[in-house]
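task queued by scheduler; priority normal; single chain, no ligands, no partner chains; default sampling; output format set to structure tokens
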Amino acid sequence: MALRLSTGLRDAMMDFRAGVVNTLYHASSIALVDGGESADSITDSESALGTFIVGDKITVSLATDGDDDITAEIVSVAAGTITIATGSFTTGQGAGTPIMLASARGGSFADLFREGNLHIYTGTQPTSANDVESGSKLVEITQGSAAFTPDTFANGLNFGAVVAGVIAKETGEVWSGEASATGTAGWFRFYANDEGTGADSTKIRFDGSIATSGAQLNMSNTAVTNGGTTTVDTVAITLPANA
């Protein structure tokens, strides 16, 4: 079976522009922390940073030292701390000065599927990722088998760095789920964060093959048992180099 992209995904990859997804302006509680040899960070004593998302780009503006007006990738997020790469800040500054934070997300494959989720089905992969799902749904894969709600940024799946044209699951994430039926895994569909199911040419999603090795999604065992935990060992998505 082949990797099959929905029309919505192909359109987005061809023409989706980066956009601002979150902003925060504060004059008293935000500090920029130069971590020295360790990671730099943005802290907020009022714990208002938890809505930012790992993997998005964050831009800092209005810093006292203009060299600290930077754009960097968000490495980790907690309510009171955003971690970014070591050496991002030149000086850093304490709280008490107005700071503007804005995060943006672009049209890359990884961005389009940020905090997405994956369903595993029995049977044969549909001829198009625009088609309604075929077979029976066996299991929904999330981070650590945790509950996933569409259009919210918790427990979704993320892709990591691209190496030689291949993108894999984010390092450190456990992709798993508790099965809702018994059967043999035949194919999967990966959905963007809105989890657009059914027949639809506008939704961002893709289909792929499942096996114990050599597939787009590899499992240690394709036999799925109702109530058991299914874990995705590896995911390797390669866009073709030639038409």
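post-processing summary
- The first helix runs from residue 7 to 15.
- The CA atoms of residues 123 and 186 lie 5 Å apart.
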